[in-house]
Amino acid sequence: MYSSLIALSNVAVGTVDIVEVVKNSTFIVNMILLGLVIASGLCWGVIGYKIYIYRKAVKATEKFVAIFWKNMNYREVFEQSDKYKDSPIALVFRAGYTEFTDTKLAWEERGAELKGVKVEELTANIERAMRRENQTMMQLLENYLPILATTATASPFVGLFGTVWGIMNAFHEIGKTGSATLGTIAPSLSEALVTTAFGLIAAIPAAIFYNYFNSVLQRFDSESTNIIADFLNYIKRSFV
User: Fold this and answer.
1) Are 238 and 74 in contact (CB under 8 A)?
2) How many structural domains are present in the chain?
């Protein structure tokens, strides 16, 4: 029992000391570690900001969609949508309804009747306005996501480069000393592998949250497509 405790304490003492790794590593390896730490910190900043923005967008969208599908008068939906401007879907609907009322009013002032070709022209204008707004909203929500994608893709390779560089230096030192025992090689190899560990620490959260944010964007885009189709059908039914 006593010997087991001693063994465990030796393992605990033998864990990698990051400060010692930094002191003993080459300038290149230390720069790689610094870059990975900065990338990881930047990613967590993006993740925190995006969680805040997406949470507001999801809550506002849920409330707006519940109102939209109640078969209310679209004028009432438009008036109530002003309370849900954090929702990209609400803004897409507002763009379409504004285009509808402005175009309809302009044509009525000129004495044009909303029949036949005019209805098709009106729906085309509305669809274009709604899809343009949807594209704008998706682009805004996608801001900073390339940082997560780049970190998730590149960090493991950057960490691996640091490991390879560290191993090269370790073998170079072995060649100079002429000693290749396990006790000589193991500390150098463990220190070299730290950069790979840092690369994975940066990449894993970035990959997880990048995929999560993309899935939310896809739900927004799908809901927007449904609302665009329903509103256009309403316009066609109303003026045919």
Assistant:
1) no
2) 1
